[in-house]
């Protein structure tokens, strides 16, 4: 199987299509969904850019902050979840941690400016507080959802800490996060219920450390492992490919691609989880 470094770049370049989608309306199951590009204050005085997705009807809690992975915005996957969440009445904000700082894809970068436990964590707080301040966001808190590096950011933001906005988050969802660092912190405690979804075959962010973490917090963290699934299993229509030059993957090489059955189950599991933790 050919090693493909270029795919993470092409996914990032697809951000233009996602931002174009933000200026338009589209439909899902007869539900109209609206989206727009927004700007809001971030850490250190930076202005963060994001895509705000609004349901056509009344909003229902929780509102959702959705965090991209190391490749930046991923239009096919982002659109899928934006449509699903908004069709269910959720207001969704997709902040762009990399583009807002003039950064390109970070998957092949060892030393990163915007780290999951650093600036990206603070971006998540800023996005959630801005979202909660909007008059069209119902009471009921914010759910933080993330994929890959965004999933690792979810784990970092979920840990109880003095700078975490008190009572803001009601739920956390992390898709194939890197759990290794967090699982080694004896003082780590998630501040709200968490759902972690990982492919059993994931060789980029292996499931083992996530099992360890979930085992420590069995009453707070639910882990779902999907057999025969790799990284990005929930991205629609993505053939499984091998990616090289990945400094954060064991051995520097990993697989990524869709598993249709796992994807469909993940759509249901996340829907159910968010409905139970409003």
Give an account of the 3D structure.
It is a single chain. The protein is α/β, with parallel strands linked by helices and 278 residues long. It has a single domain, classed as Alpha/Beta hydrolase fold, catalytic domain (Rossmann fold, 3-Layer(aba) Sandwich). Helices cover 30% and strands 23% of the residues. The chain is built from eight helices and eleven strands. The strands form two sheets. A nine-stranded mixed β-sheet has the order 1-2-3-5-4-6-7-8-9, sandwiched between helices. It has a two-stranded antiparallel ribbon with strand order 10-11. α5 links the parallel β6 and β7. α2 packs parallel to α3 and α4 crosses α5. The chain is globular. The N terminus is likely disordered.
């Amino acid at each position: 199987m050919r090693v493909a470094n270029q795919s993470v770049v092409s996914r990032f370049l697809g951000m233009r299509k996602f931002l174009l989608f933000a200026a338009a309306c589209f439909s899902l199951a007869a539900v109209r969904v609206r989206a727009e590009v927004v700007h809001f204050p971030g850490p250190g005085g930076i202005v963060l850019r994001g895509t705000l997705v609004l349901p056509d009807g009344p909003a229902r809690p929780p509102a959702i902050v959705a965090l991209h992975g190391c490749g930046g915005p991923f239009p096919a996957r982002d659109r899928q979840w934006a449509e699903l969440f908004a069709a269910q009445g959720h207001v969704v904000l997709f902040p762009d941690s990399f583009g807002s700082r003039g950064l390109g894809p970070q998957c092949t970068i060892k030393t990163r400016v915007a780290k999951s436990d650093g600036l990206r964590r603070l971006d998540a707080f800023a996005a959630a507080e801005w979202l909660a301040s909007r008059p069209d966001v119902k009471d009921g808190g914010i759910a933080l959802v993330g994929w890959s590096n965004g999933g690792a950011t979810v784990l970092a933001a979920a840990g109880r800490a003095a700078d975490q906005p008190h009572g803001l988050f009601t739920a956390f969802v992390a898709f194939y996060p890197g759990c290794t660092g967090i699982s080694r912190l004896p003082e780590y405690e998630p501040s709200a219920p968490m759902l972690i979804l990982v492919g059993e075959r994931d060789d980029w962010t292996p499931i083992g450390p996530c099992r360890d973490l979930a085992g420590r917090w069995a009453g707070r963290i639910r882990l779902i492992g999907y057999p025969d699934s790799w990284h990005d299993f929930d991205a629609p229509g993505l053939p499984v490919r091998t990616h090289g030059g990945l400094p954060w993957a064991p051995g520097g090489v990993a697989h990524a691609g869709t598993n249709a059955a796992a994807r469909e189950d993940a759509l249901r599991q996340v829907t159910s989880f968010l409905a139970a933790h409003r």
